[in-house]
Predict the 3D structure of the following.
Amino acid sequence: MKNLTIALATLAVVGGVFYTFGPYPPFWVKANIRSSMTQWVPDPDSLQLTGLRYSENGSGIICGQMNAKNRLGAYTGYKKFAHARDRNFTFLEGIGPSADSMIELFHCN
């Protein structure tokens, strides 16, 4: 009986670690998004991500907002983004009209 209790407790803990709560992506997605955005920010250590959630259209796209320091050391202000995790590619608001239309298409407004 004691072994069964230990096995069930272990299973519950392991299952709880891998469970995604509600509309929010798992914790490891944040690191994936950070690595995808390093091409756009001069100071990757200053990158701030907020409002991470799955897109409302059910596509698996992750939406959110990012803020980072520019070359002068000042924060630029939050911008919307849409991250395609299966392709490790991020569309960032203001980086061309196609990125803005993709953010709108994925319902990341």
